[in-house]
From TrEMBL:
Signal peptide: none annotated. GO terms for cellular component: plasma membrane. Its EC number is 2.7.13.3. It is a multi-pass membrane protein. It catalyses: ATP + protein L-histidine = ADP + protein N-phospho-L-histidine. It comes from Solirubrobacter ginsenosidimutans. The keyword Cytoplasm does not apply. PROSITE patterns: HIS_KIN (PS50109). It is an enzyme of class 2 (transferase). The keyword Repeat does not apply. This is histidine kinase. One of its GO terms (molecular function) is phosphorelay sensor kinase activity. It is found in: Cell membrane; Membrane. It comes from the Bacteria.
Amino acid sequence: MSWTRRPPLIVGVLVAAVGVALTTLLVYALKGIAPVLSLGVVYLLVVLVVATVWGAWLALATAVASALAFNFFHIPPTGRFTIATGENWVALAVFFLAAAGASSLAEIARKRALEADERRQEADLSAEMARLLLRGGRLEETLPSVGARLAHALGLASAAIELRAVDAGERSVVFALREGTRQIGTLVLPSGAREDVLRRVQVRIAPALEALLAAALERDALQAEVVETAALRRSDVIKTALLRSVSHDLRSPLTAIMTTAEALHSPSLTADERAELAASVTDEARRLSRLIDDLLDLSRLEADAAEPHPEWCSIEEVVRAAVDDLNLPADAFKIAIDAELPPVRADAAQLERAFANLLENAYRHSNGHPVSVRARDVGGRILLRFVDRGPGVPEAQRERIFEPFYRSGTAATGHRGSGLGLAIVRGFVEANGGKVWVESLPSQATSFVVELPVEP
């Protein structure tokens, strides 16, 4: 869409000159079928065309040229600018007045048509700007598109909308965009813009843009408020879940440690019983330590503070380090990793924490069967599978189990964890450019799949 422009003035002068000349020739051809004085009306066609396209002033000049040509070539005595009779004077005067009136009416009609066309195009431009500004998305990313659309509509080389005050420069003209008394932005146009374009922008386009920009800013503010409200609500949920976890999951090992420690003071205990109780204290302390580590890991992930420090590492070494960290029986896991598996560039400590949680979760649900760990290279990406022989995960829970504090187990199965491990797994895996999901067959097996890029 571009604003309607009249052709250059020199083109209008040429059209007027050629039109007068051709009309003069046409009058020669028509003399045999009509009186000469009545043929002057033919020149009005040229005057109307010029008035419609180039305006009244050139049309008046065309009317003068037409009157002179009509007088010189067709009104007796021909060949000179003299008029022999009063009748011819009246005819020429009537022709000139008719030409002047017709050109004025044509100019008025032209201006109204141009104004109507400009209003239509401005309405189309406003609708397009509204679509771009109010369709959603980041306002900072939308403004360049709005500026480009505005420049195209105005026939300008460029146009920019800034969400700040901008001073005019040697090569720019600025329009402050306000909401009431507050400036909300600036429309920047090139200094070479025509005066009529700048006037149109100031009178009609800038006010429409102000209203749309204010609405877009209000929408962004409301969206930010909604996001903040959702974040606060989620924070409250996490705090509530954290308090529940602290009150139960932390208290359980603490209670066991305190009870066992008090029992160790009994003088009737044998050496074997003391060793068994001491081992129980160690196990509960280790369990408590893992729970605290999980809480710290989750808090870092929730705060986006778990920035990975990637380095080249061996997947097999990371998996075996995770197994060693769990202090479980040696036959609890069957590890089958491709010998040709390439190293990955990732944070080894974060992957170890993720793998340890997957291994512990699989062991907890394996019903005494060894947990299978397999890894292979698939098209430049490492695919790891942690497979247990547990009861499986219902399809409705396969996404929810990765949410913080969500527990899929039941009291009947005895497999209720803290609800932190899988959330930490997803957080650390995704922080290193990977993905994790679960594949499960009811009452047969569950496979947690981790996909990692060789280099993120």
